[in-house]
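Friendly challenge for the regulars: who can give me the structure tokens for this chain first? No prize, just bragging rights.
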Amino acid sequence: MNSGFDGLNAQLITKYSTSGPRYTSYPTAPLWKDNFTEDDYAAGLNEHLSTRTSKALSLYVHFPFCENKCAYCACNSDTIDSRLKIAAFISSLQEEVQLLIKQTNVLDGSYIEQLHIGGGSPSYMNEAEFEKFLAAISPLIEKSKLSEFSIEIDPRGLNNEKLQFYAACGIDRISFGVQDLDPRVQEAIGRVQPAELLVKALSAKNKSYFKSINFDLIYGLPFQTGESFKATLDAVKELRPNRIAIYNYAHMPKLKPNQMTIREEDLPSAEEKTKILVTTINSLLGGGYNYIGMDHFALPEDDLSLALENGTLYRNFMGYTTAKARNLIGLGPTSISGFGRYYAQNVRDTALYAQLVGDKILPTSRGLRLSDDDLLRRDIINSLICNFYLNFAAIEKAHGICFKDYFGPELNSLVCFIDDGLLTVNEKSMKVSFQGRVFIRNICMVFDAYLKKDEQRQFSKTI
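First reply, four minutes later:
Bragging rights claimed.
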């Protein structure tokens, strides 16, 4: 599956290094409407469940607390001074579940096939708290229906007993927030976690409990260099996680005040970031990982690799995933739902979330009902970003258009990618080259109808 990255050079990376969406949704979240209410959400979900042939859903639950806030973090999470706040949140979560069941009339455990618990740091919960957490969402879960049950883990404070506890709860995929193993980088981002923690956690016995293990890494952090990050990659490859996701750090201290402790002068230059990116891709390819696309890598036998190979890869708010249950329900503060032609997001503030569900109101803060044009462009972007291929006839049949007529300007805008060897286009289809996967966000942006209308939105860098 890996074809190598001969020809990928600094000039191409510099040329296409611009800000753009990550396309975990289309239209992207900043475009959703504040007047989308809890009634719109419930009606949309009922419409979806009553009309879809396949009603399989994924469930994401957002745990909004961490023991400490890392300097780089852009997630919605708070530190807490009392574990009573965890108990209060679990009580609110239980209320949200009951409200959702009541307002949708038909939603129950028979729909949920994938469950992911993220945050925040859900591993901050102790065993008793976690059991209450699972009990709160249990009306939506039938364990026999789950094809995947995953959780995000902070390696700090982890031990063998807790990993065994997770396995006993039915969790089969775990994701570690690693970021970087260099002590100087860890000190700068406020996340000191020696590599020995991971080595101990991932003993052969502990690894045997889980179907898949993921590592999250970040490049662009203070004091990183190509050489230092290669050392992290070498250590990671020794531990052999099934999946590796590497994200580009977005420095936005005006929006994320916790990032103010990171000094801009300590961040790697654009040239150094390019070196880190190329080093990462070549190192992981050389280590036997398949390049799934954009920011994800997986071992050949992992479900992501198999999904890419058989054309069932999908992308949603959790990144690349299998398409077993592509429609998503979100619970907890700031969580996002996406099903059919609807998106919805819960309120961000944990106190407001608790107040709303306590008043028997679903905590929906905004959302969107997609237009026919939105659905068309979403299908195109999803095909390109997941399959790296687009069949014009399939799009024409699904949406009742003539592709060349509808997208004439967009086709003309693809010339630069064709000239750079990142894309081929003929009368019937377009195909992204292996090298083009690095620049897939840029290619997808050509089909984004909203980018020119709103130049003020802030995105992460595409490279």
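The two ends are 22 Å apart (CA to CA). The longest strand covers residues 112-119. Your move, everyone else.
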